[in-house]
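FAQ
Q: What does a multi-component entry look like?
A: The components come first, one per line:
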Amino acid sequence: MPPESPLWKIMHPRSVAWLGASNNLAKMGTIQLRNLLDAGFSGTVYPIHPTEETVLGLKAYPNVEALPEIPDMAFVVVPARVLVDLVEDLGKRGVKRAVIVSGGFKEMGEEGAGREAVLLSTAERYGMRFLGPNCIGVMHTREALNTTMFPVSVARGPVGLVSQSGSYVTQVQLYLKKLGIHLSQAISVGNEASIDVVDCLEYLAGQNDTKAVILYLETLRRPRRFFEVAREVTRVKPVAALYVGGTEAGGRAGGSHTGALAGNDRLYDALFRQSGVVRVFTLEDLYTVGYALASQPPLRGKRVGIVSHSGGPVTSMADACERYGLEVPVFSQALQEAIKPLLPATASAANPVDLTFGLGQGEMVTTIPRRILESGEVDGVLIHGIMGSSYREAFFRHFKGSLGISLKDIEIGQKEGLTELARIPRETGRPVICSSFMDREQDDCTKILQDMGIPVLATPEKAVRVMAALGRYGSLRGVRSR
Amino acid sequence: MPPESPLWKIMHPRSVAWLGASNNLAKMGTIQLRNLLDAGFSGTVYPIHPTEETVLGLKAYPNVEALPEIPDMAFVVVPARVLVDLVEDLGKRGVKRAVIVSGGFKEMGEEGAGREAVLLSTAERYGMRFLGPNCIGVMHTREALNTTMFPVSVARGPVGLVSQSGSYVTQVQLYLKKLGIHLSQAISVGNEASIDVVDCLEYLAGQNDTKAVILYLETLRRPRRFFEVAREVTRVKPVAALYVGGTEAGGRAGGSHTGALAGNDRLYDALFRQSGVVRVFTLEDLYTVGYALASQPPLRGKRVGIVSHSGGPVTSMADACERYGLEVPVFSQALQEAIKPLLPATASAANPVDLTFGLGQGEMVTTIPRRILESGEVDGVLIHGIMGSSYREAFFRHFKGSLGISLKDIEIGQKEGLTELARIPRETGRPVICSSFMDREQDDCTKILQDMGIPVLATPEKAVRVMAALGRYGSLRGVRSR
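Then the predicted structure of the entire assembly, as tokens:
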């Protein structure tokens, strides 16, 4: 992405003027600056403060004019009534980019909308582009850039997020951590007076750290331009969108939130479909589908194989596949014969492959998924119930040492198996999605798989839902195998 | 429930004959016995073993005949080929109840079905009723009874579970723990040769520790009897069911699992509706809806109030309400006027009530929900984002002590507010459902609320889905307010 994007310097600032922090640690602007510094941001930060000599230990400047250089970006958390004058000052100093957190604009009705128009024309007079007002800031994990209120030390991930709600950038951080989902960059767009969702989509399309883009939308201010941009982006990078402005209640709630008018649900539905955007309907799907799109190849057909050692989960998966538009074909005799030697006598090889519960699970992780995918009879594989530490704790805790093999050896063998599994999508061009009732803190297999890019969802149906979304992307991109 | 239920002694045994444990800790039967003992079961256990003098430290008996008393129940984990002879022995000794874990019966096709018929007729000859074969055992938290393979020390809860999949009783324990959901009793029915889902439903209907019953179904062997029983039970106790045998793939998968034939999806749908059973489509919904049904009053209409300090979540909730068939009515002027003094100037009082983000959240937890519910303008309230420890960590960690109030004082005030909130459903007869991105391990408010019986779901849409299910139950029971 060329530096020409209005987002470029906002997401890669070498220097930031910070307006609205003080040494009062109970103020939002101060908390946000504190978090930026704690995140290890390596650029220069210039706090602007009328009276303080230093702010949070940094040399402070009485006004923008006094800055020793033109900062790449200004971060603004000041009351609405003084904002326009400050933007004027920034413009005069030559500052071209800003993030404006301050509220009290279009989201407040007519009077606020008037204030926002003045703000925009002031900025435009100086060629300044800005995020907000009424936004929460940005995160760029590779740049250690976190201007939000939550002090999470964010691990690097492959998902780029653009959100018309600040909460879905900030409040969700601990939630995403539990799910093993990490972001590359996140942008809270607020009222979109100057920079909107389309600008952000265009920007993230060119960012190498971002393998898929997810959008939380209450409205689109430039639907036509969105269509043009999204159609191009989705040819090379998956995009998923959660749109909540299409119902009467959703539109009303969204309207009071960032000053947007509700759109029409069917119109948006067609817009997404025609531009290749995968539409989802819940926040959980937005993040989990986004992560799967970023880490897995698309599903190039509807046919999936199902593997587990548990009858309930394979049945849930099979039922959910059909409800979500996927197929669970009965394997050919040849494929069944090829798998059978790997299964206990009581197991079913027909698809779903139900190994029935036993104390070992090695084949489920390695040979069987590969053989199924290499057969060409399915387009992707779902696996439920790969367990490591939680399982050892449950079954082996009473007889450590009496196994003739150490737990350490089991761990090593397990790691090898999981690494082998994680290679399959890359090598076959077909996705693997897992589910496990044990999350990454409860079981090391879940953590290892997630960290190697294999999505592990909490329940069988969630895994199917994510797989179905990979299928929708495959179908929207026209990459069907038959 | 009278002791006449075939389940009574199985769920309340004072003495258990245990067939299939040894001192080899790598065997299933041994692991299960180990778990039973670890759970603190207070009844007498008689291991049966041909050669060992003791098993896991308990005096062992060479055969059933040698037992010093007739045990209330036998627990059987032996190979299928020796099972019938053992059941014959049990019958002769006068044992009337059993849990048969052994597999190799109807789930294995025709030959297995033949074996199962012999097993059943043998048991019947002695008036013996049993769970299984091919089941995983039972849990009864109040009795410290846990015969499953997972060594979880299960906390007491209000939800009774009957499952045709053993995994959904055992493997899910850590998953339920994360969700703050606890069971009263859980029954894995296996092949249902002698005792089936209907028997279990009838039994749990009469159990005081069970406030709602949830069913995982791949098929119903006695649909007519199910209808008669469920219709009666749902008059006094909510029942939710996840049925996965209605799709081609689900039916096929389920068939190979517990030897059941797939039913017809629409037929089952009508059956559930007409008998007052709330149907759900995912495992997550089964447990979360079950817990809400057990802990909250039904939603007696479609109208809900929404309260949060975050625009995204209220918009997601409003959108989801409409998609799931709930209404988000605009509040009357009178109600809006009553709420407004409690809100910041920038906030919306119309419904959703969006307090906009600030450092305090007291009114959201106490006064506002109560005022909304007491107005009679809505039938239930959804609240997103009550945060305690995670929030204090995020915002207050840098200035502990400089607040003029200690964190301890904040915690006490918070606990009082949450206790006040938890009283509202009982006092108004209307449900309160919450969502928070922070789970019970990440935030003390989530834990406190869940432990006081207020469901806290992980995302806004999940809270709405659970509320909608309370509405379906209210509607099925015919308890509408208008």
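Q: Is there any commentary attached?
A: Sometimes. For this entry: The two ends of chain B are 35 Å apart (CA to CA).
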